[in-house]
């Protein structure tokens, strides 16, 4: 029998999609990459997925794991060869266990992030991973890319929120380390090897996650600042005085607000967009209550006013107002899409060097293409900027993406000069695969290639992502 016939026999024809039925899974979320596939398969559980992998190995067929398909670097899109099997984990979407005494929950990889948040909330706990795509992204994808989000400052990346994994290897073996232990010092840390590997070393099928107490109060403020330097001063002041209560510190440029106002006029902006060049959305989660949280907020913001660190401030008076402020932050990428295709950069820079990095790199980009627009926003608290380059508002707009390689080089050379990383939370995928060796330590790349060869010698797991096939099999 053919591979397609074997897959149908294994999991049923209704769970093997071909032709037009498969087309929704062939293009990435940003519409930058479109591939072809032999089939999309939807296994029901880990054992079935393991058998799918074994069949693909026997047929020498590439496998592309896919969750919510919300990635930004083309990491879940097959090549154009048409020989790949997309393994969709959407049926593996159960919450397997919630242990409030141990503050853990175990979920299948196809669980939507928002459903995991809701399950934790229903149990009186908090699962703090939060990002714009939480209504459609999956836990497996979050872990495969080591997603960050808005609360990394307090709780860490996806890696920091995971205690154990279940993984199917390239040979179809099931590795079960779904322990709910904070301490397990029994050899190599296989969990962290698979997290962030983008499905190139194994397919994550389930995870044991950390839960936290729900805060008694959450308070949000929107601040207007005269400069980047002031934003860093307010960040350091907030860290000192709020300590672990500081859960979010998001930087937003005036250009970001201006495009939201222009293209998404229904979204409320608390200040006129020309109030200041920079804005900060700050949030604290307090364990004592609303009054205590607001008192702390007002004291810290008052001190920042006295020290000329902020120009204006709005403190949310209700959950609705807080949600509106976060909606404003989350609307920036939507407004960017209305402006035109942007060249997006998900970078990390030491916070102490960010001000200088932005000034110098902005100037280099303007020199390269006068009139270029900079949409800069992100998680200042953990050193992560979405440093997005938008087209000039002229005839060059149509062919702007043809300059991607040149703009990447300007930005990434500058990131490297400032001891940063070319990928903070979005991963490498195929977007940055060929650029990565230029900016990562040569010996670190050598070790990555050795690990890939050892765990996936036939290069069938998500080939062409993170490391090119040429690098793996020279």
In short:
This is D-2-hydroxyglutarate dehydrogenase. Its cofactor is FAD. The chain is 34% helix and 20% strand.
CATH class descriptor of the largest domain = Alpha Beta
Largest sheet composition: 7 strands, antiparallel
Number of strands: 18
What's the number of structural domains?
A: 4
Into which percentage range does the β-strand content fall?
15-25%
End-to-end CA span: 33 Å
What does the overall shape look like? globular
Mean pLDDT score: 93
CATH domain fold name of the largest domain: Uridine Diphospho-n-acetylenolpyruvylglucosamine Reductase, domain 3
The CATH architecture term of the largest domain is 2-Layer Sandwich
Give the low-confidence spans. none
Helicity level, as a percent range?
25-40%
Give the C-alpha Rg: 23 Å
Alpha plus pi helix count: 15
Strand order of the largest sheet: 15-12-14-13-17-18-16
The SS-based structural class is alpha+beta
Cofactor: FAD
GO molecular function, one term: FAD binding
Family: Belongs to the FAD-binding oxidoreductase/transferase type 4 family.
Pfam families: FAD-oxidase_C, FAD_binding_4
């Amino acid at each position: 029998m053919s591979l397609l016939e074997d897959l149908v026999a294994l999991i049923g024809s209704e769970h093997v999609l071909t032709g037009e039925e498969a087309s929704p899974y062939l293009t990435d979320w940003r519409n930058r990459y479109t591939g072809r596939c032999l089939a999309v398969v939807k296994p029901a559980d880990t054992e079935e997925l393991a058998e799918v992998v074994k069949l693909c190995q026997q047929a020498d067929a590439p496998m592309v794991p896919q969750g919510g398909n919300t990635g930004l670097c083309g990491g879940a899109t097959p090549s154009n060869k048409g020989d790949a099997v997309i393994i969709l984990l959407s049926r593996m979407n159960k919450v397997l266990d919630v242990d409030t005494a141990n503050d853990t929950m175990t979920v299948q990889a196809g669980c939507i992030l928002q459903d995991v948040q809701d399950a934790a909330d229903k149990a009186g706990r908090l699962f703090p991973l939060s990002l714009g795509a939480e209504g459609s992204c999956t836990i497996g994808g979050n872990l495969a890319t080591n997603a960050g989000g808005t609360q990394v400052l307090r709780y860490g990346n996806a890696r920091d929120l995971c205690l154990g994994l279940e993984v199917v290897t390239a040979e179809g073996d099931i590795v079960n380390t779904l322990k709910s232990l904070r301490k397990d010092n029994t050899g190599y840390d296989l969990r962290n090897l698979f997290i962030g590997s983008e499905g190139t070393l194994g397919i994550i099928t389930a995870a044991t996650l950390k839960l936290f107490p729900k805060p008694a109060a959450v308070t949000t403020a929107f601040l207007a600042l005269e400069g980047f330097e002031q934003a860093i001063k307010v960040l350091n002041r907030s860290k000192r005085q709020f300590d672990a209560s500081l859960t979010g510190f998001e930087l937003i440029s005036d250009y970001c607000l201006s495009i939201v106002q222009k293209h998404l006029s229904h979204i409320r902006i608390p200040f006129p967009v020309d109030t200041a060049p920079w804005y900060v959305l700050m949030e604290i989660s307090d364990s004592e209550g609303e009054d205590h949280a607001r008192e702390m907020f007002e004291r810290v913001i008052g001190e920042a006013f006295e020290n000329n660190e902020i120009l204006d401030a709005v403190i949310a008076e209700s959950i609705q107002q807080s949600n509106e402020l976060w909606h404003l932050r989350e609307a920036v990428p939507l407004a960017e899409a209305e402006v035109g295709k942007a060249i997006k950069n998900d970078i990390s820079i030491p916070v102490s060097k960010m001000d200088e990095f932005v000034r110098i790199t902005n100037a280099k980009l303007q020199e390269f293409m006068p009139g270029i627009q900079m949409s800069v926003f992100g998680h200042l608290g953990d050193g992560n900027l979405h440093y997005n380059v938008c087209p000039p508002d002229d005839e060059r707009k149509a062919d702007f993406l043809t300059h991607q390689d040149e703009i990447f080089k300007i930005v990434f050379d500058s990131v490297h000069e400032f001891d940063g990383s070319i990928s903070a939370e979005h991963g490498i995928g195929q977007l940055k695969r060929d650029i990565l060796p230029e900016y990562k330590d040569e010996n670190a790349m050598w070790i990555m290639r050795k690990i890939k060869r050892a765990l996936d010698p036939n290069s069938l797991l998500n080939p062409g992502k993170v490391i090119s096939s040429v690098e793996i099999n020279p």
